[in-house]
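Fresh eyes needed here. Have a critical look at this protein's tokenised backbone.
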Amino acid sequence: MRRLSAGLAVRARAAGQRVFRSLAIRNYRLYFAGHAISVAGTWMQRVAQDWLVLDLSDSAVALGISTSLQFLPTLLFGLWGGVLVDRFDRRRMIMLTQTASALLAAALAAIVLTGSVRLWMVYALALGLGLVTVLDTPARHAFVTDLVGPEDYINAQSLNSTVHNVGRLVGPAIAGLLIAAVDVGVAFAVNALSFAGVLLGLARMDTAALRRLPPVARARGQAREGLRYVWHRPELCACLVLVAVVALLGQNFRVVFPLLARDTFGGGAEVYGWLTSALGVGAVIGALGSAARQSVMAWSLLRWTWVFAGVCAVAAFTPWLAAALAVIVGLGVANIVFNTLARTLLQIGVEPAMQGRVIALHSLISLGSTPIGGPITGLVCQRWGPGAGLLLAAVSVGAAAAAVTPMLRRARAASA
């Protein structure tokens, strides 16, 4: 019995070392700590903004439009954002984008707390944040390769997902309490202050230890070059098809969950916070599980696509809040494992000089599809209820998984 216990303890320590190995690198540790502070504020703002729009408009379509405006610039300019990420210093770029995000959050806090807020103002600031996202998202994801070596890409991406989803767990719960107890504008103010964490971490880094790649020289056709690069690699192509459908119709939680909280469960902002936090709990579990992985394959991504579709179908027909929270934890696991595997697959299988453009293409598809998918899901929910939005996700994602299966089989046969 003692030997068994000792063996289990050794295995647990080894697993812990695998899961958190990237934190041994000082620069990554600084980025991780700063990001942990900032991301909780970001999730507070997302919940507060959604609730503010619903309060100002009482419209599911308006909720979809506000979400869409935040991601429309990525749809229009995302690929060119990746070109700039490949050309310029990523650390400095992130410092600029995070500063801009803080200023936009402070502006939203000011107009809400002074009582001068109008729906069009929220739309305008959401669009401004979307313009910042064009550079911020590919820069942050590609920056991981500056912080750690290739052997730790999966681990670092998974730990980033973990901290992102701990923020998803903590931020919405705090936002719900602040909205109910104080004012929705306070959540925006706290988010503005939270950006100090990531900016301080970036400023304190040892720049000599960063694994910077030589900047890509300016040339014509670099955006098209990124598209051609992915087109001729079937696994990358299949990955992006799955990401496109999941992002377009599967991940519109910010449209579905406020309506689910209000219309299905008869609650307010606090219930919306619970639903979002449940998604975050599952995401943390899924991200920590992914962090122990040492390899990623396209077939693993396909399996988790089917899991995501199945859990969405179950959630669509769950009528009780307690049961729905449990199902949404499972949805969070499936969602984050899918996203982590997709991002890692796109980084591991890509030449270093193409990382910014390929990650930007991923961002264009995953974030840029929201301006289209958000209103579609909003219309479906307004016509048939929030459960129909989840069912739409299940059917569309399952169809995408079935469609790419022959493509992956052909790629495996060609490889063999």
